[in-house]
Every structure is written in C-alpha cells, then in structure tokens.
Amino acid sequence: MAYSTANRPYLTVAAVAGGFGAGSSDVGGSRWCYRSSDPLASVTSTGYFTDGGPGKLNMRPGDIVEHIRLTTAGVPAALHVYLISSASTNGASATIISASST
C-alpha cells in the first residue's frame, strides 16, 4: 500500500528547545504515532512520508515514529518503532529500530 496524506502521522511529543544538541533546529527529538495497515517494508522505503519534510509535517532526523500496524479490518496487529533517518522536501525516510514479530 502507499502512504496517503489523508492518514498522516500525528505528533505526540514535540522536541524540547528545538531538539537534541543544545537547541539545534536540524536534529529531531519529537515523537510521532502512525496507524496504518502498510507493511514494515513499505513504511521504511525511501521518502515514504511524502509530506514529512520541511514546511509540511516538519519531521527531522532523530525523530521517533511509533507505527501501530493494523489488519485490513482495522484491528491492531503489530507495533513497529522507527527513527527518521532523513527528511527533505521530497519526504521523510524511516529506519527500523524495533518491530514486533507479526
């Protein structure tokens, strides 16, 4: 499945003082939650969060995303945790940190 801007991740904890690194504006520290039925391989593809970059969702490298993967019936099936590894006007990319077995 593909990412849809109609189902965006939502910010759960904003970075304090601009993020990690003594107020740096270019290193994350925010936490996001995302619910979708998209598989792990899709969500970790380059630029998956097409509106995640600057001027849109403003995700930054170092941000954490908790992905609640749903079944097609909308039932929670797995929890995956990602680190935003890059963000640009083309989107934000995530790298897996932890994944449940399903």
Describe this structure in words.
The protein has 102 residues and is mostly beta strands. It has one domain (10-99). 4% of the residues lie in helices and 38% in strands. It has one helix spanning 40-43, and strands at residues 10-13, 31-36, 64-70, 76-88, 91-99. The chain has a five-stranded mixed beta sheet with strand order 1-2-3-4-5, with no helix packed on it. The longest helix is centred in the middle third of the chain and has 4 residues, at 40-43. The two termini are 17 Å apart.
Summed up:
This protein has 102 residues and is mostly beta strands. It is built from one helix and five strands, in the order ββαβββ.
